[in-house]
Amino acid sequence: MAGQTLYDKLWSQHLVKERDDGTALIYIDRQLLHEVTSPQAFEGLRLAGRKPWRIDANLATPDHNVPTTLKERAEGNAGIKDPVSLIQVQTLDDNCGEFGIEEFKINDPRQGIVHVVGPEQGATLPGMTVVCGDSHTATHGAFGALAHGIGTSEVEHVLATQCLLAQKMKNMQVRVEGQLGTGVTAKDVVLAIIGRIGTAGGTGYAIEFAGSAIQGLSMEGRMTVCNMAIEAGARVGLIAVDDTTIDYLRDRHYAPRGEQWEAAVADWRGLVSDDAADFDKVVVLDAAEIEPQVSWGTSPEMVTGVSGEVPDPAEQDDDTVRNGYTRALQYMGLAPKQKITDIRLDKVFIGSCTNSRIEDLREAAKVARGKKVADSIKLAMVVPGSGLVKRQAEAEGLDKVFIEAGFEWREPGCSMCLAMNADKLGAGEHCASTSNRNFEGRQGYGGRTHLVSPAMAAAAAIAGHFVDVRQLAANDDVQGQEA
Amino acid sequence: MKKFERSEGLVAPLDRANVDTDLIIPKQFLKSIKRTGFGVNLFDELRYLDEGYPGQDCSQRPINPDFVLNQSRYQGASVLLARRNFGCGSSREHAPWALEDFGFRVVIAPSFADIFYNNAFKNGLLLVTLPEETVERLFQEVAANEGYALDVDLENQRITTPSGEVIEFEVDAFRKHCLLEGLDDIGITLQDEDAIRAFEAKHRAARPWLFRDSAQA
Predict the structure, then answer these.
(1) CA–CA separation, A133 vs B82, rounded Å?
(2) Distance between terminal CA atoms of chain B?
(3) HSE toward the beta carbon, residue A1, CA cutoff 13 A
């Protein structure tokens, strides 16, 4: 008998019922809620006279609309100047209050981006099914949990029934083998994967990321990789459980304790794909060939290495691809064959559910330490993923490194990743961003996003244009030896 | 949910691949706590020449005459013809809400993103996946024939072109049933309440740490 993949195991552990037509009912262990995609779901419950099935399965926090400036945050919800945003955050507070759902409100130190908060609290555990009305729910798959984004109707469905109607996905394995080069991070790995398989390459699949380079990543790095599975079209990204997973979870607030911890760990050890498991598709990348990545276009698949150049649409054979490239270059204000390192930047954003965890901030701070943000940069900001990440970073003195270098040190939230609050790009501005989407208008009307790692963003802030962070590291080493 | 009725619909072509949900409905309009009223901001950044904000009177805004939905020949379109990977990106259900509110009942493309696919069917919006060559041919026919309309028959899973050509399409049985009957998923699922309770009890016994109220403090 063929073995099972990790996805197969998680699916069968949560299968309540399978219908003849291939639709299944799967049980949901955890639902994370935020203010943008939940109000209509709660309203639907109320209109139908329904109650949440299991209150303790839910955890909420406002993140998309919250201001990130200290002055405004000090005022709590009242600091949200946009009245429409304010209503949305208040509505989350009201709904959680009415139904008794635990919520980390705007100035709770545990508040933050929902995909940073869940793992940090141990509210995401291996073997769970995790959903949220947010496509970046794929993040939680880093723990060997079956996690994916859902729409608002599905949020309501999960609230009311603790189940989701689903169809089984196909299995894809993306293996990254070997050793990553110095200065090459999880973000570069996932951007390289998306560049390889395309933004629809994973549609219909659950992607399991594997191989020695993935196993060598910290939990923060693994979350960065799984987070962007959706940018390759896959709702689900997964990584097998190992010691790194278990060590991260020990003593987290919602993690089990005592004998239950021991039993849980024994169970979690089985959350790996069997050796004989069959994948419908396998993609293999050589870690040593991955260089720091920079996106040049308006889709995450439009990405290349920092030593590369902007492609020439004329060299594309497929009409649809060529038209897409032409439109992207026009929107981005870039020329064919332009060197990536010649792209000048106006703003730098370090944050988002992809890259706002402590390790991300450490990597950026390492580059920024003792340097100054270039005069040509209008704004360079660092937005920690949660109140607890912020506190940890401050305990390590990272805030001072950033502030001394000329970065703004902000309060936690989604911020300029999607610019629903006041943090946004102006028309035509180029931004080195550690976020996940470079779609037209994503970071602000007419804004031009370049997706990069935290280290690359920090290096770009200092140079005013993209630079190869590996060369900076090499220069520093030389200086260090001379000194 | 409204029942999906067979109808002949004017076709509007949107000739670009990877149309993401940010493009379908930009983030500033997601601040609404309602499910309706998103139609005026559908494709906001393509449709208007200025930056939109929630609650504004869109009839006073400068429109982009080059954008397909602003052209007179496509007024009243209810079928959107699109390219591959339509609806990628954010899970925002506001995207199908906006398409539906604008007046679209059907989107035809070579492929759709997974989350958008689910969201659309839950809102009475039929997504039809056709081979790339067929979609390309439809693009050419739409461009060549003003008033080009398709008869979309979900019951029989057939599309009929103005020349009488019949194109068959696949759709899974459950989604088709829900769309034709206008059924509420939650009501259907709750018919299995006993099965859910039984599963939950077994699941809790096997893995109590997944339940905070069973967890050891």
Answers:
(1) 25
(2) 44
(3) 4
